[in-house]
Fold this protein.
Amino acid sequence: KQVTRSTGAVSGIAKKGKNQDQFIIDRAVDPDKYIVGPGDQFHINIISSNETFDHSITISPSGKLLIPSVGIVESNQLTLTKLIKEIKKQIRSWNKNVKINVELEVIRQFRVLVTGQFSNAGYFVVTPMTRISDLFEQIISDHNQRKKETISGNRESIYNETFGMRSRIAVDDFYNRKLGIDQELDKSDIDLLSKRNIVIKRGDDSIMVDLEKFKVTGNEIFNPYVQQNDIIHIPYKNRHFTVKGGVQRPGEYEYKINDNINDKPPNSFPAKLLMLLYQRFQKFNGDPSMILHI
């Protein structure tokens, strides 16, 4: 049997030497929901009565997939299921008596725009299997890295060539103890970012994201995957309520319109009282003049 293999450029997954790293995803790709795009790489196996062809090909930047000896398949914005059907249809138009296997081989990367008033808003590299929570952590990590580099640069600028090792250690000790790099990292606009009022602008639709609710309920509707051409807006926190008293987690919590303190009626008196106060907070839209003193 004749075996041929054509290799396209790999996009979307880092490599370690000649071996491709494993995918880091939270579940198997759903072919009915996964939207293909430029950079996705496919392994196409064609078996006929007398030869076998193996092709590793990548969707081009214009959204086309070129299958050697067969032709071009328009693939942009198709689901994985529809694209595989189209690939098989095109190949069978060339040879009806072949067995065809198609597999998504490499997941692409792309840049998505994140807007907001925080310092490092802009474009971030993601994949179709990146959730908003992953992107949020990436934004925080990027911000902290930039902050560390800025602090390190400021520290280096005060060093002098005439400083001995003892003087350099003294400067390091001053920054670490008196100023504190960790404290500087904590005091930033990144801590003001909302986790409950994130908005994905996807075409004409606006999708609300609530990472705190996802963390508590595990419901993935509150933490969807990113799609190409999404614009993610992350505002600052602008409303909150405070929980005090004999509760498991007292403290300040971000408020979201139409919040419910509990889907089930509370049984204990403290829980009923808490629900009453929270309902008043909602009714008067957080107006401080309507505080109920008990």
